[in-house]
Design brief:
78% of the residues lie in helices and 0% in strands. By secondary structure, the protein is mostly helical.
Length: 424
């Protein structure tokens, strides 16, 4: 009963428009007061959140992705990929998905991925006869690859909450990320084949491929550097973010010469605003998590789940259904910070690997990014494409189904996620 009242109070605060960070932190503080616990846990929770080496990767990845966004890297990346696959059936759509995947391997942010590739791909695809709703849906869904293919800011936060290895989470995201890219590409090619408006593109010549490839080569090199460094253990995720930021400055400022001081200032301010928002939410969730732990809510819920859902598949199905519903009115990071501390104690008794569950959770969070009314990627693509929310929402549902299909596949074959981090 106590858990239900607390959840109702939290959802009431969120529906009243209270910012997520203050709803979580304020409710956590009240719970500590009414429970007779020391309120000193609040400043201790805030300090422990900020004073954390793992979370230092968040502002650095945001800085890197914003520098690349302002420096126009997406344009060069899209042109290079298009030169190689543009003549395929649905070639521009394929180029869009591949470009999203490559940029995702650099940025760690779905919003940056959607905005960077969308700025270039949306007008180009619409000009070539692709239906607007399909184009907008493809970019909104393609942007979500930014948080599944490593590096990933939500995976960093998940590792922080559960004290699991962030590197293992990063590596586990590679297989499902590639699977999702393949599904998006297959659907795009079939869609183009069946669409009466599709216009085939001529095959690019070797001169164009060479020219665009050389221009995009530093970006490919940056993606390879980050993935190799994390995979080989040459540097930690935080160090990877710092190296990536420095490399992004070098590429956009010195090699391509597309980044100005004003652009760098705007990129820094945007990264600072997003970082403050994320850290405030994490800090508020830390206080809330401490309070519900002292009230023994996670333990009680874990006991109820293991008693009533003693099959792993049933637990995963129920959690997926709950996350789909929560995704309709909660943004991605809030879902993770509210749900993971409650669900984590149930994983081991049910035989679920925490790293696998992290990937499952991130894919479900991806679904939340493209479900109205609060799907963040919908608003990004709506702004970039100057479209109505209805146009974007109509275009995303096939890709939402493909994400859920990916969840089904990784449940049937857990090694899609676990082979690279643990068996390779």
């Amino acid at each position: 009963m106590t858990a239900l009242l607390i959840l109702l109070a939290l959802f009431a605060l969120l529906l009243l428009g209270v910012p997520v960070a203050f709803a979580l932190g304020g409710l956590g503080y009240l719970m500590l007061e009414f429970g007779g616990f020391s309120p000193l846990m609040v400043p201790q929770g805030l300090f422990s959140t900020i004073d954390n080496f793992i979370l230092l990767a968040v502002p650095l990845f945001l800085l890197m992705s914003n520098v690349l966004l302002k420096g126009g890297v997406g344009r060069d990346l899209f042109a290079a990929v298009q030169a190689w696959v543009g003549h395929w059936p649905g070639g521009l759509a394929v180029a869009t998905v591949v470009s999203c995947g490559i940029f995702a391997a650099i940025s760690g942010s779905s919003v940056a991925t959607a905005a960077t590739i969308g700025t270039v791909a949306i007008p180009e695809m619409i000009k070539r006869g692709y239906p607007r709703s399909f184009v907008l849906g493809l970019l909104a869904a393609g942007g979500t690859l930014g948080i599944l293919i490593p590096p990933s800011i939500p995976m960093i936060v998940f590792g922080f909450i559960t004290e699991e290895s962030v590197i293992a989470l990063f590596l586990a995201g590679i297989g499902p990320g590639l699977l999702l890219i393949v599904l998006f590409i297959a659907f795009s090619m079939i869609y183009a084949r069946l669409s009466p408006d599709y216009q085939p593109q001529p095959k690019a010549g070797w001169d164009e491929r060479k020219r665009t490839g050389i221009r995009a080569l530093p970006t490919f090199g940056l993606a390879a550097l980050i993935i190799w460094g994390i995979y080989s253990g040459a540097f930690t995720p935080t160090e990877a973010a710092a190296i990536g930021f420095a490399a992004a400055l070098f590429i956009t400022g010195l090699l391509l010469r597309t980044l100005t001081w004003d652009m760098l200032k705007d990129a820094t301010l945007d990264a600072m605003k997003t970082t403050v928002t994320i850290l405030l939410i994490v800090a508020g969730a830390k206080v809330f998590g401490k309070a519900i732990t002292l009230y023994r809510i996670p333990q009680d819920i874990s006991f109820i789940i293991t008693q009533n859902f003693n099959e792993a598949w049933l637990f995963v199905l129920v959690v997926a259904a709950v996350l789909v519903l929560m995704g309709l009115f909660l943004e991605a990071l809030s879902m993770m910070l509210i749900m993971v501390p409650v669900l984590a104690p149930s994983l081991i008794p049910l035989g679920l690997d925490p790293i696998w569950f992290g990937i499952f959770f991130v894919i479900m969070v991806e679904c939340a990014l493209i479900t109205p009314p609060v799907g963040l990627n919908l608003y990004v693509i709506q702004a970039v494409g100057r479209a109505s929310m209805g146009e974007v929402a109509r275009g995303v549902w096939p890709f939402l189904l493909l994400m859920l299909l990916t969840v089904f596949f990784i449940y049937l074959v857990p090694d899609i996620a676990l082979y690279i981090p643990f068996k390779l």
